[in-house]
TrEMBL record:
The keyword Chloroplast is annotated on this UniProt entry: no
Record's signal peptide: none
One Gene Ontology term, aspect cellular component: cytoplasm
Molecular functions per Gene Ontology: DNA binding
Protein name (Swiss-Prot/TrEMBL): Integrase
Organism of this sequence: Paraburkholderia silviterrae
Any GO BP annotation: chromosome segregation
Matching Gene3D superfamilies: 1.10.150.130, Intergrase catalytic core
Domain Tyr recombinase: 171-387
Region (Disordered): 378-401
PANTHER family recorded: PHAGE INTEGRASE-RELATED, TYROSINE RECOMBINASE XERC
Bias (Basic and acidic residues) ranges: 378-387
Length: 401
């Protein structure tokens, strides 16, 4: 049974599912009266699951995307409620993720992203990479597990899928080698500074690369940060220490050491934009200043585009040096803001920074309650980060400390 004529492929917030497919009589529904959810249909049950992640935008968007894809595939492609899916159905869905067909129904015509309210919106922008396929199945397994625990479903059909033996985590490959990173810095340093616009562009490029590299921050952390998030306190030796407060993945707050080199670059960037060299503690100006308009935080996509623009410029410059630099330029074309986070972590590790320091700086694991009182550990982390992890611009900042 194909219900293409009954159900249109559209976002779940505007989706209307016929009662025969909405799951109220799904073959995998839990025992009557055992559900802990008020939901009596699959769409409402998915909304209940997603509500757990409403306060974390990125996670919510990713989880909604995978739940939405499966629900739409079930009712449109199979003509079945999500709560009637079997092990065999999910094997078909696993194959579908490799190449969603028919493409005109499931895939954006241009491979581009459109607003969810746009008629050109589709659930996919193209076939999923192996990593994205695995991620989709992990998310859906978590969804089914939650629905079973809530009593909405009787069993988890995902649990029957054969799992490949877990391989050891591969080394990070999406990062820039030290030599290629030096090329990026050289390109930034030689940017023209004749006009005011050129000076501001140079200042932003230098600040962006410095900030991402020295702090190892996620793009969302940089986009949402403000100048007033910098603060200083006295270390055990009586000397000032600068730190940057940030809120990372899962709304977990952490503080990242801000080395004297970073603070010198902060001074340089602010001075280039006509600001006082040091921000006030409660200053609301964004960490990345817009070129024009209201001084508000840039979107994640705007920060992403700014970093991609730096890499693209450096790649073009490298190609101009001759054919021998083509492979290095191609590598930069693939790079993104997240590569800078990996680059920061990799260079710190290769430079001998303690892995526990890197863990805490990057926010991979939250500090436990006891560590909140171990200020001597913070002092050592600050000293080690400032001394061993440096930007190393050829021309030192005029306002160095």
């Amino acid at each position: 049974m194909n219900n293409t004529d009954l159900v249109a492929v559209q976002p779940v917030e505007s989706l209307v599912v016929p009662s025969a497919l909405d799951g109220r009589d799904g073959s995998n529904r839990g025992v009557a009266g055992s559900s802990q959810l008020a939901a009596d249909n699959d769409l409402d049950a998915l909304r209940a699951w997603l509500s757990n992640y409403a306060d974390t935008r990125t996670t919510f968007d990713n989880y909604r995307k995978e739940a939405e894809r499966l629900l739409l595939w079930a009712v449109v492609q199979l003509g079945k409620p999500l709560s009637s899916l079997t092990h065999e159905d999910l094997l078909l869905y696993k194959a579908f993720l490799v190449n969603p067909q028919p493409a005109d129904r499931w895939v954006s015509a241009t491979g581009g992203k459109y607003p969810r309210s746009d008629a050109r919106w589709r659930p996919f922008n193209g076939p999923l990479s192996p990593a994205s396929q695995r991620q989709a199945l992990i998310i859906l397994n978590a969804m089914f597990t939650w629905l079973v625990n809530a009593g909405y479903l009787r069993g988890n059909p995902m649990a029957l899928l054969r799992q490949r033996a877990k391989r050891s985590a591969p080394r990070v490959t999406r990062y820039l080698s030290i030599s290629l990173w030096d090329e990026v810095k050289t390109w930034v340093e030689q940017l023209p500074q004749e006009s005011e616009a050129e000076r501001k562009y140079h200042a932003r490029c230098r600040w962006l690369t410095t900030l991402f590299y020295l702090q190892g921050m996620r793009i969302s952390e940089v986009a949402g940060a403000r100048m007033g998030d910098f603060f200083r306190r006295l270390g055990a030796d009586g000397q000032d220490q600068w730190w940057l407060e940030t809120v990372g993945k899962g709304d977990k707050a952490r503080i990242v050491p801000a080395s004297p080199e970073l603070i010198a670059e902060l001074r340089r960037y602010r001075t280039a934009n006509g600001l006082a060299a040091i921000p006030a503690r409660a200053e609301e100006l964004p960490l990345i200043l817009p070129f024009k308009g209201t001084a508000r935080c840039l979107s994640r996509s705007a920060v992403h585009d700014a970093i991609k623009g730096i890499f693209a410029g450096a790649a073009t410059w490298l190609r101009g040096k001759g054919a021998d630099f083509a492979d290095r330029a191609d590598e930069l074309d693939r790079a993104s803001a997240h590569w800078l986070r990996h680059t920061a972590g990799s260079h710190q590790a290769d430079g001998g920074v303690d892995l526990r320091t890197i863990r805490d700086n990057l926010g991979h694991v939250s500090l436990n309650t006891t560590s909140l009182y171990l200020h001597t550990e913070d002092d050592e982390r600050h000293r080690e980060t400032a001394n061993r992890h440096r930007m190393g611009w050829k021309h030192a900042s005029e306002n160095g400390e």
